[in-house]
């Protein structure tokens, strides 16, 4: 659980700020996927996610300064990771001019600061190594650009960088943007005060990646449905045959400890879809006991039925991680079946980013989920009960 003296919703929101005539620095997550040597954006989802915050600031009389990282330029300028295509796309989406700064700090940038109603997009923050190093001098230069600070980049809130934490020491007020507000509202609700019965669905390859999530959520929810390769570490720890399935042998003791601590709260697969090799369209069968020469690549039909029945009765659902290697059909059936069950459950449902989001999208069910998180790593750390530095640094109400 999050420590009792910290509730994300006790932080200032952009709605609490007087923005009229102010220069507002908005940290956004415009780390979009690029193709054609950085010239073409293949998905503008992250840009669209922060449009409401940008438009809110503009409507309330602010001059807007937008800042984001893009890719991993390792502290040096890179033409392939310039914000140029982002500026072009943003102009199109906002229907108004967007000025792209030649850098993110310095006199050249200061000369371009926007008047009320104007939009300035800074060049990639990570062109400076000082951004990831959370360098105080660099933080102060960023803060010099604005009157108030807004963080709308939930996907970067678990990073203590200059633009997410460092510069806040040098501004009068630091608030959450509308997207950040929404993320915190839903994630806080499902982890701190869920409607019951409350169910977590956890998948993925490794127990080691999800230990803290399992430990934290098992204290909060009524059931944790486990799938993905990590289920086989749990099953092997109970003495079940796992064949050639992926198992973390060095985590068997940990799996036993979690099973002993949380008992019937942790629900494991009762059957499996197995194949001799991991490839698309491989010959497969549904079994209860995994043969020595086969590997489990998805949850079986009885497990799907069991998990569906638990999901149907739920009032709150948290989902992070697929049930099998869903990117290679037919081993996507378990994940897709659960995606449909979650969408039809009528529960408050929060899906953590990455593969779970991809599954929901592939199934065409995104609009039937209460909230799909924009931050994979950040939502995972939040669900683990960790305080996110980029949220903790915001001004208290």
Question: How is this structure best summarized?
Answer:
With 397 residues, the protein is α/β, with parallel strands linked by helices. The protein is 34% helix and 15% strand. Strands 5-6-4-1-7-8 form a six-stranded parallel β-sheet.
Topology record:
Layout: E1 23-27, E2 34-35, E3 40-41, H1 45-49, H2 51-59, E4 63-67, H3 84-94, E5 99-100, H4 107-110, E6 119-121, H5 129-132, H6 136-143, E7 148-151, E8 174-176, H7 178-192, E9 198-202, H8 207-220, E10 223-226, H9 230-237, H10 252-262, E11 266-267, E12 272-275, E13 284-287, E14 295-299, H11 301-312, E15 316-320, H12 333-344, E16 348-351, H13 355-362, E17 371-372, H14 376-383, H15 389-392
Parallel strand pairs: 1-4, 1-7, 4-6, 5-6, 7-8, 9-10, 9-15, 10-11, 15-16, 16-17
Antiparallel strand pairs: 2-3, 12-13, 12-14
Helix pairs in contact: 9-10, 11-12, 12-13
- Domains, number: 2
Q: Count every helix, treating DSSP H or I runs of 4 or more residues as helices.
A: 15
- Strand content is 15-25%
Distance between the termini: 22 Å
Q: How many strand units?
A: 17
Structural class: alpha/beta
CATH-assigned homologous superfamily of the largest domain: Phosphoglycerate kinase, N-terminal domain
Level-2 CATH architecture of the largest domain: 3-Layer(aba) Sandwich
CATH topology title of the largest domain: Rossmann fold
Question: What share of the residues lie within helices?
Answer: 25-40%
Widest sheet: strand ordering: 5-6-4-1-7-8
Give the uncertain stretches in residue-range form.
1-6
Query: Shape from CA axes?
Result: elongated
Please tell me how large the radius of gyration is.
23 Å
Integer average pLDDT: 93
What's the CATH class of the largest domain, please? Alpha Beta
| Biggest pleated sheet | 6 strands, parallel
């Amino acid at each position: 659980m999050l420590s009792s003296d910290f509730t994300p919703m006790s932080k200032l929101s952009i709605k609490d700020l007087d923005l009229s005539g102010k220069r507002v620095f908005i940290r956004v997550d415009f780390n979009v996927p690029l193709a054609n040597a950085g010239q073409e954006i293949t998905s503008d989802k992250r840009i669209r996610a922060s449009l409401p915050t940008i438009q809110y600031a503009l409507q309330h009389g602010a001059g807007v300064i937008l800042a984001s990282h893009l890719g991993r330029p390792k502290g040096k300028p890179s033409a392939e990771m310039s914000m140029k295509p982002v500026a072009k796309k943003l102009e199109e989406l906002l229907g108004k001019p967007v000025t792209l700064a030649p850098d993110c700090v310095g006199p050249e940038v200061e000369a371009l600061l926007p008047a009320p109603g104007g939009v300035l997009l800074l060049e990639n923050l990570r062109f400076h190594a000082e951004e990831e190093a959370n360098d105080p001098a660099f933080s102060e230069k960023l803060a010099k650009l604005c009157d108030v600070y807004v963080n709308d980049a939930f996907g970067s809130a678990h990073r203590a960088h200059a633009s997410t934490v460092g510069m806040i020491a040098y501004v009068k007020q630091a608030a959450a943007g509308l997207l950040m507000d929404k993320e915190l509202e839903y994630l806080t609700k499902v982890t701190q005060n869920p409607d019951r019965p409350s169910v977590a669905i956890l998948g993925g390859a490794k127990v080691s990646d999800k230990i803290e999530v399992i430990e934290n959520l098992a204290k909060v929810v009524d059931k944790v449905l486990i799938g993905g390769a990590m289920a086989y570490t749990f099953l092997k720890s109970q003495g079940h045959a796992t064949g050639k399935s992926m198992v973390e042998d060095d985590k068997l003791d940990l799996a036993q400890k979690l099973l002993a601590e949380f008992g019937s709260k942790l629900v494991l697969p009762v059957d499996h879809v197995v194949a001799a090799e991991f490839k698309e369209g491989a010959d497969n069968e549904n079994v209860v006991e995994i043969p020595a020469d086969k590997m489990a690549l998805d949850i079986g039909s009885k497990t799907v039925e069991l998990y569906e029945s638990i999901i149907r009765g739920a009032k709150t659902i948290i989902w992070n991680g697929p049930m099998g290697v869903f990117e290679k059909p037919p081993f996507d059936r378990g994940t897709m079946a659960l995606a449909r069950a979650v969408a039809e459950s009528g529960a408050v449902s929060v899906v953590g980013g990455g593969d779970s989001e991809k599954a929901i999208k592939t199934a065409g069910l995104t609009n039937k989920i209460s909230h799909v998180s924009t931050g994979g790593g950040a939502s995972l750390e939040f669900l683990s009960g960790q305080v996110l530095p980029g949220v903790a640094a915001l001004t208290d109400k």
